[in-house]
Design brief:
The chain is an alpha+beta fold. It is 46% helix and 14% strand. It has three domains: 3-182, no CATH class; 191-249, Orthogonal Bundle (Arc Repressor Mutant, subunit A); 262-344, no CATH class. The chain has helices at residues 3-10, 21-28, 39-44, 52-60, 79-103, 110-127, 132-141, 148-160, 179-182, 191-206, 211-218, 222-231, 270-273, 287-290, 330-344, and strands spanning 31-32, 64-68, 74-78, 130-131, 164-166, 175-178, 236-241, 244-249, 262-265, 300-303, 306-311, 320-322. Strand 7 and strand 8 form a beta hairpin. Helix 5 packs antiparallel against helix 8, helix 6 packs across helix 7 (132-141) and helix 10 crosses helix 12. The longest helix has 25 residues, at 79-103.
Length: 345
């Protein structure tokens, strides 16, 4: 087994199978969407013809939704997965966020939740797509002044209640819309079916991965994750690599990887953040160059699937730092050109 080449194929980072951005998000189930500007590249680079405009169309039409979900962090999900994923993850995500609130000495009583939520929902309804500044102004009209942290927790809890979700795409600012106007309602599913769908999506997009990787990514308990893998039955098989057991979905491809490929990966990309153990693609001695101990991930360069440098996405010219001190290669320049074409397409 060559775990690097299989991961690149599963992650749609080489020989991508999809044309539309929403199909990429649907394939993953949930994609980390922490960096608002570069989450677009994370999705688009996995399509056959990366296009910033195509991503915006999918996002504005509600085919792709951004909200706090897995591990209480920002995720992108496809519209048809929104409701069952909320049912599966909302309670756990709420507990995570309540833990953060407690650590920051913030306590919000139920009557405050009800009062503020009503104002937020009216503002989102009036605006169609409301920014946080719009929420601040709407609160001020009711003579309510609230610090940014507290308001953020109100917004997150409204997301997890299924009443607020992402609005239209803005160049730099997150916007919010009423979920009922953005996402069509779907029929609820049983918990076992939700676990099956989640595991299928994770392993079809992240194979090969370990049980521990799945637990980390999903934020679910280890018993639920074991159950989900077992419920997939013959869709899954395992293989040993360096004495560790990896699971692969039956859809995992082994052909299509080309040696010499270079990728300019955005921060928080699933290629790294989607696994608990990242030593397959990232030398432990270089870990600090890819992410810090506070959970901040940086833009990185992958060469043949190995993380080998950093790059700066918002500069006018190509700026990289390769870990081995070598010069920019034609392959990196070609990937930079692809990135620039995406931004203008």
């Amino acid at each position: 087994m060559n775990p690097i080449s299989i991961r690149l194929l599963s992650q749609q980072l080489c020989a991508p199978q999809f044309t539309e951005p929403e199909d990429v998000v649907r394939h993953f189930g949930a994609m980390q969407g922490q960096e608002y500007r570069l989450m677009r590249w994370a999705v688009a680079m996995r399509t056959k013809k990366p296009s910033a405009k195509a991503f915006q169309i999918a996002y504005d039409s509600g085919k792709i939704i951004r909200l706090h979900l897995l591990r209480g962090t920002w995720q992108l999900v496809a519209a048809e997965d929104y409701h069952w994923m909320l049912d599966l993850f909302a309670d756990k995500a709420r507990r995570v966020i309540q833990g953060w609130m407690s650590a920051n000495n913030i306590s919000i009583p139920d009557d405050e939740y009800a009062q503020i939520r009503a104002i937020l929902l009216k503002c989102a309804s009036d605006k169609g797509s409301a920014t946080k500044e719009d929420f601040v102004n709407a609160l001020a009209e009711q003579h309510i002044v609230m610090d940014d942290h507290r308001l953020s927790y109100h917004i997150r809890m409204a997301e997890l209640a299924g009443v607020l979700c992402s609005g239209d795409l803005h160049p730099a600012k997150m916007t919010y819309a009423l979920a009922e106007t953005k996402v069509p309602q779907t029929e609820p599913i049983e918990s076992d079916e939700a676990l099956i769908r989640l595991a299928r999506k994770y392993f079809q997009s992240h194979s090969p991965a370990t049980l521990e990787d799945f637990v980390w990514w999903s934020g679910l308990g280890i018993n639920d994750c074991r159950k989900a893998i077992a419920l997939l039955g013959t869709e899954m098989h395992s293989d040993k690599w360096k004495k560790k057991e990896f699971y692969l979905h039956s859809s995992a491809r082994t052909r299509g990887f080309r040696k010499g490929d270079v990728l300019l990966l955005p921060p928080y990309d699933e290629y790294l953040i989607g696994y608990k153990s990242r030593d397959i693609t990232l030398d432990e001695t270089l870990r600090h160059k890819a992410h810090n101990n506070m959970g901040t991930f940086f833009p990185v360069i992958a060469h043949d699937g190995i993380i080998s440098g950093n790059w700066k996405p918002f500069e006018k010219r190509l700026m990289v730092e390769l870990f081995d001190g070598s010069d920019i290669t034609p392959e990196i320049e070609a990937e930079w050109t692809k990135y620039q074409q995406y931004r203008n397409r």
